[in-house]
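Hi R.,

Here's the chain you asked about this morning:
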Amino acid sequence: MGIHDFWLFLLAGALLNITPGPDMALIIARSTRDGTRAGIVAALGVGVGTFIHIAGAAIGLSALILASALAFAVIKWIGALYLIYLGFEIIWRSALKTSEEMKSSVSLPSADLLHVFLQGVLTNALNPKVAVFFLAFLPQFVDGDAPSKTAAFIMLGLFFDTVGTAWNIAVAWFAGRLATSSAYARLKVWIERAVGALFVGVGIKLVLSERT
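And the predicted structure, written out as C-alpha cells:
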C-alpha cells in the first residue's frame, strides 16, 4: 500500500500514544470520578475524535486549516476554551465535595455515558495540534510513489488510532481500579484538582501556540 518502515512507525506511534496529554487526563478524570466504564467510553470517544483528524487530513481539510490563519485561530480558540471549561468544571465539582465525603465513600456516581463519549470526541477533535501532528508525522512513512497516498495515510492513521485506543482503555481500567481503593479516597480531591489544573494549563498553552 505504499507504506515503508512500518515497524518503526508502530514503535514511534506507541511512544507518542503513551505520552500524557489532555485526552489521557480526561480518561483518568472520568475513570476515577465515574468508574471504569465511563473511562472506557471516554477512551472510545477520543478514538473517534482521532479518526476525525485522520479523515480530515486525508482529504486535505487539515492542510486547509493550517493554510488559513483565521480557520486555525477559530479552531484553536474553540478547543482551548473547551479544555479550560473542562478543567474548571473538574475543579469546581471537586471543590463541592467535603473532605468527609472523600474519606468515607469510595462508591462512584453514575455518569451520562453519551455526554462522556462526546467529551472524549470533542477534547481530541477540537485540538488543532493533533491535526498538525498527523500532517507532520504520518506522511514520513508513505512512499512517494504509493498507488494511493490517501489509502496509505488512512491505513497508518487507523493503526495509530487502534494502538492509542487500546492504551487509553488500559489507562481507564487502571485508573478505575485505583479509584476503588481506600488509599485513593484520601488523595482523590487533590488528584482531581491536579487534572483540572492540567486541562486549564493545556488550554492556555493552546491559546498561546502558533501554527508552526
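The chain has one domain: 21-208.

Let me know if you need anything else.
M.
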